[in-house]
Amino acid sequence: MAPKNSEASTNSKMVMNKGAWTGEEDRKLAEYIEVHGPKRWKTVAMKAGLNRCGKSCRLRWLNYLRPNIKRGNISDEEEDLILRLHKLLGNRWSLIAGRLPGRTDNEIKNYWNSHLSKKINKKEKNLQSVQLHRTASPKTCEAVAAGQETVEESSKGAAIRSLASM
DNA sequence: AACATTTGCAACCGCGTGCTG
DNA sequence: ACAGCACGCGGTTGCAAATGT
Predict the structure, then answer these.
(1) What CATH number did the domain enclosing A57 receive?
(2) What is the pLDDT of residues A116-146, one digit of tens each?
(3) Which nucleotide is nearest to A71 (CA to C1')?
């Protein structure tokens, strides 16, 4: 895959750092934000003396350097909340993260993709095999599933609207 | 021990939206 | 009304560590 960078490409001579952040870069970013605050990321990147694009700085701050960030060890309560919110909101990771203090959307998205989606797939497969044994025709199953989907979609919309407006 | 495969997470990318001049 | 910019989001990728053969 050819590397692209929309912000970096605005200055053809400038080659931005990419990949993992070093301790030194973290320190520079944190020090700058402590003084000037987390805004104008392009300026932050330049003024902090970081050869990074603004986007990269923003992401690093939000997902790693920001104070009060919880890392790892997602508790059973948090997992349960994620599952319920995902059922309600779908892949609205930032909204879900907003309900979990100290957690980032990226962390929740990663957790979902690597842990929960598998769990759910397993559950669904189990459920399907049970249903196939119990119910009459596959068409009945489809009809039932479609009906549930419609109801879920409408409540999803209401939930997103109410959370987004907060 | 050596290699292959899988997993988990940090970071990147493209796109949509809102703000500003 | 419009263009350009900055920001935020969700999807995807890259890679090191862990695990399996």
Answers:
(1) 1.10.10.60
(2) 877 776 777 677 777 766 654 444 444 444 4
(3) B9
- Positions of strand B less than 7 angstroms from a protein CB: 7-15
> Three-state secondary structure along A56-117?
HHHHHHHHHHCCCCCCCCCCHHHHHHHHHHHHHHCCCHHHHHHCCCCCCHHHHHHHHHHHHH
Print the domain residue range for A51.
8-65
C-alpha distance from residue A56 to each of A5, A29, A36, A39, A44 (Å): 10, 11, 17, 13, 11
A2, part of any domain: no
Tally of domains in chain A? 2
CA of A6 vs C1' of C1, distance in Å? Answer: 26
pTM of the model: 0.77
